[in-house]
Design a protein that fits this description.
By secondary structure, the protein is an alpha/beta fold. It is built from 14 helices and 23 strands. It has 3 domains: 168 residues, FAD/NAD(P)-binding domain, CATH 3.50.50; 113 residues, 3-Layer(bba) Sandwich (FAD/NAD(P)-binding domain), CATH 3.50.50; 107 residues, Enolase-like, domain 1 (2-Layer Sandwich), CATH 3.30.390. The chain is globular and about 70 Å long.
Length: 453
């Protein structure tokens, strides 16, 4: 006999938790299923532990930048084993805490990998006693590293494994030029590693403004990190205790040696083993194919949210939480709510951070919008000079006529915080004039917004 529920949420991260708590609060019988420790990517193997490492690297970098400007020689250094112990004070308690919160809310937890048996039924693990059926199933299983199909792929280290390193190897190569590679490369270099980024395209961080990316790449190279563009990794081999990374470039073959090679070449929804076909759930490379209400287009009993949904939302924690809430509302009350992705920022946590919200310049041009661009190198602005940061700039797109912010792109100290002001303006329909009228606390990075608009 299958155990009966109103909702089965596959996953325990931001999307699944948001939906599970809301449906349980409405009186539904809810189960959550996860084959990994409870808590999801962000809390355990993504945003939160990464930012702990970035914080230490930022402190070290700041102290080095200020030498000769009021800070004595010698500087600070990262103690990697101690930093990892500190990181685990954040991640270690999460699984038990999350499971306890589910239990206290009356949500039934199941440990094991789920797979569909039919449109409404899943089995957890191999135990035939763990068969669950429900009116609705939410797929919120997150992402995993993409399969690259290269020889020696088994020698790649995932970002999750990188976050568990007890010791940092001396030579590290990162495959791919996205968030993971740049963020971890900046941390590793400031912890004393020799670092190389190998990116197959001519421009890394393709989702961000190319002018600001160019400045960040220059800052990355000035840090001592080798950034090789137009360099496609095609194989890895292990020889005499070291790794050889073989690449193809326009000039011919290139190879580098490393003690560790990290997979930073993209992630895909973790849905391949869910047996979605048995439930008649259509899916694609970006995840479960959903309509505007986050409902499966082929099985009305299934919804999807977060990184495993092929929705317009970016693979970000705030988007996952938003989509979990929206999916829950639609399951509870019928399809009536669509996610609003307006003004949700995204950040690359390098040093300095690179942040963006809204449209890029090319996207605004493609939509034939009429807008003006405010942009400037801000490395000589007070807020940047006082922390001795030589890499800083911004680009803000303002619509002609309405004065609405179409997009904002920031590189520099506190860009990850300041970008939220632009996101708020976009979400609430504030204009550039509204932002100009605000009497900001001074001197702060936020007070620079007045000059940016």
């Amino acid at each position: 006999m299958a155990r009966q529920f109103d909702l089965i949420a596959l996953g325990t991260g931001s999307a699944a938790a948001a939906a599970a708590y809301r449906c349980r609060a409405a009186g539904w019988q809810v189960a959550v299923v996860d084959s990994r420790p409870f808590g999801g990517t962000c809390a355990l193997r993504g945003c939160d532990p990464k930012k702990v490492l970035v914080g230490a690297a930022d402190l070290v970098d700041w102290s080095r930048r200020m030498q000769g400007k009021g800070v004595g020689a010698g500087g600070l250094a990262i103690d990697w084993p101690a930093l990892m112990r500190f990181k685990r004070t954040f991640t270690g308690p999460v699984p038990q805490h999350r499971e306890q919160r589910f239990l206290e809310a009356g949500i039934v937890p199941f440990h094991g990998r789920a797979r569909f048996l039919d449109e409404h039924t899943v089995q957890v693990g191999d135990d035939p006693a763990n068969v669950l059926t429900a009116r609705y199933v939410l797929v919120a299983t997150g992402m995993q590293p993409a399969h690259l199909g290269i020889a020696g792929e088994e020698w790649l280290t995932t970002s999750e494994q990188f976050l568990e390193l007890d010791d940092l190897p001396r030579r590290i190569a990162f495959v791919g030029g996205g968030y993971i590679s740049f963020e971890f490369a900046h941390v590793a270099a400031r912890a004393g590693a020799q670092v190389e980024i190998l990116h197959r395209g001519e421009r890394p961080l393709t989702g961000f403004d190319p002018d600001l990316v160019a400045r960040l790449v220059q800052g990355t190279r000035d840090l001592g990190i080798t950034v090789r563009l137009g360099t496609a990794v095609h194989s890895l081999e292990r020889r005499d205790g070291r790794l050889l990374v073989h690449c193809a470039t326009a000039e011919g073959e290139y190879a580098c040696e490393a003690d560790l090679v990290v997979h930073g070449a993209g992630r895909v929804p973790e849905i391949a083993d869910l047996a979605l076909d048995r439930a008649h759930v259509r899916y694609e490379r970006r995840g479960v194919t959903v309509n505007e209400f986050l409902q499966s287009v082929s099985n009305p009993a299934v919804y999807a949210a977060g990184d495993s949904a092929a929705s317009p939302g970016l693979p970000l924690t705030p988007v996952a939480s938003l989509e979990g809430e929206v999916a829950a509302a639609n399951m509870l009350e019928g399809n009536h709510r669509q996610p609003d992705y307006t003004g949700i920022p995204t950040v690359v946590y390098t040093i300095p951070p690179l942040a963006a919200v809204g449209l890029s310049e090319s996207a605004a041009q493609a939509q034939r919008l009429r807008f003006r661009v405010h942009q400037e190198d801000t490395s000589d602005w007070y807020s940047t000079r006082r922390v001795a940061m030589p890499y800083a700039a911004f680009k803000v797109l303002i619509e002609e006529g309405s004065g609405h912010i179409l997009g904002a792109h920031l590189l520099g100290p506190h860009a990850d915080e300041t970008i939220n002001l632009f996101g708020l303006a976009m979400r609430k329909g504030l204009t550039a004039a509204d932002l100009e009228e605000m009497p900001y606390a001074y001197p702060t990075s936020a007070s620079d917004v007045w000059y940016m608009v």
